[in-house]
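Batch job 17 of 40 flagged for manual review because the log was empty.
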Amino acid sequence: MTELEELVLSPDERARGLRVDSVVFTMDWAGEDCPGQLAAFVADRVRAFGAEPTGVDTDVVYRAAEADPTLRRGDFPVRQLDHLSGVLADLRCSLMVWENGTDAYEILVALTDGREPTGLTYEDLPVRVWGSEPEVTLVSLDCPSCSQMLVWELPADQTLADECCDCGAALFDATGRALPHVTLHG
């Protein structure tokens, strides 16, 4: 049994042989299919750990979003996850994200008792506490000279210093910052 299974499955769920993927909530980068789904999932997971999910809702986030004219598509789910992460901390739980390489949020709730687990994986892909720095960074762009799409998956301690496209166009400076004519995706 992996440490992740011990954190995201209750003892009863482990005894019944449930898998981690049975307690994952998938949310598109643009948001929930129906309002309240994420909060209901998180509340159910808190109950699975034997606690009362006091304050586990996103109503306050919805009200704030209604009054925010600067809110862009994709901002709201991040605000929901930030809010729920803070609520869960008071319940001895952590909101976690499984980084499977898609643009969807794969959400888990873990019973962590205030500690921040690191180095977790599921199906050989990283799982991290929401809000913590990812172990890898995905960088993508279209070359401004030849329009070729370029994608790098970098460990957190690596940069693209002096990186060039195959066509010879310089993309990054010596410190790893994108040059002024280069636009990174999302």
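Reviewer: the log was empty due to a logging misconfiguration, but the result itself is present. The helical segments are 3-8, 11-15, 37-48, 59-66, 75-89. Unflagging and moving on to job 18.
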